Amino acid sequence: MEFIWTLFEFLWIFASVFALGLVTAIVFAAFRRKYNHTHVEVPPVFEDPNSLKPVTCPHILDPADKYISLIIPAYNEEHRLPGALDETLNYLQERSAKDKSFSYEVVIVDDGSADGTKRVAFDFVKRYTVENVRVVLLGRNHGKGEAIRKGMLHSRGELLLMLDADGATKVSDLEKLENQIHAVAVKERKSGDSSASDLRISDVPIAAFGSRAHLEEKALATRKWYRNFLMKGFHLVVLLAAGPGIRDTQCGFKMFTRAAARKLFTNIRLKRWCFDVELVYLCKLFCIPVIEISVSWSEIPGSKVNLLSIPNMLWELALMSVGYRTGIWKIQS
């Protein structure tokens, strides 16, 4: 009995020391991230591949001069990117032909690809001109969150949509998000003061998140048991870190008004797996209305997220929670 009690004490002390060490490491990492200037802050140089002349780089703080910007992060997407871009630009051109007031741009952010992604992207710039398609080169791989942040900060749209390079979601589904944003904006104007009625859609902070939650039952039936277990565990951790309200934080199809993007993407810090969760947290912090909308979605081979990503996701969620809740990560208004 005495041996068992001694063993229990040893395990308790070991667990306490381990937990203390883990918390210390997270706090240290959050503190270091406070002074981490590894975001790619240098403005991109947009070059017209047809004339070889540099193009003025916009910033999210500038007024919008396009109706919508589509930001596509791309890392080693040489094979999947062409099909997604063809579908996207065909839709945009058709809509532009029907509605002359509809203006657009596609911003492809090459996240340090080692294949022919850059060549593919510039081929589309040549075909559709730098006025409609632009390429941001990050130089080395920083992560999907950083690629989207960079694209958002240098886009020109009143509305800004992030979407994946694999084309898993139909680009036409952006109309679902767009319509809901306009509906919420109308309500905001009606419930606000008289000056709010003069605001453009770009001036009202609103976010719309595409969701695959309606497909969850089918996904649960087809996935391996351990993937479902890990998914449920991840959802629980997300709930603890960012709070309730959004069923699917990880769908890569999200739309923001320019006012919302200004607040969110000048503050976001996570650069890889869990930046979506940080966006949810920041939306709540800034009281930005978030609408979750079901979108069509299909599994595309070649996903870069695997089981080994889980520990990194958990680490980033812990880092985010400690960073914001201790005040180490400051918010810019």
UniProtKB/TrEMBL annotation:
Source organism of the structure: Handroanthus impetiginosus
Subcellular location: Endoplasmic reticulum membrane
Catalytic activity field: a di-trans,poly-cis-dolichyl phosphate + UDP-alpha-D-glucose = a di-trans,poly-cis-dolichyl beta-D-glucosyl phosphate + UDP
Metabolic or biological pathway, per its Swiss-Prot or TrEMBL entry: Protein modification; protein glycosylation
Glycosyltransferase 2-like domain ranges (all copies): 69-182
GO cellular component, one term: endoplasmic reticulum membrane
Protein name per Swiss-Prot or TrEMBL: dolichyl-phosphate beta-glucosyltransferase
Superkingdom, taxonomy of origin: Eukaryota
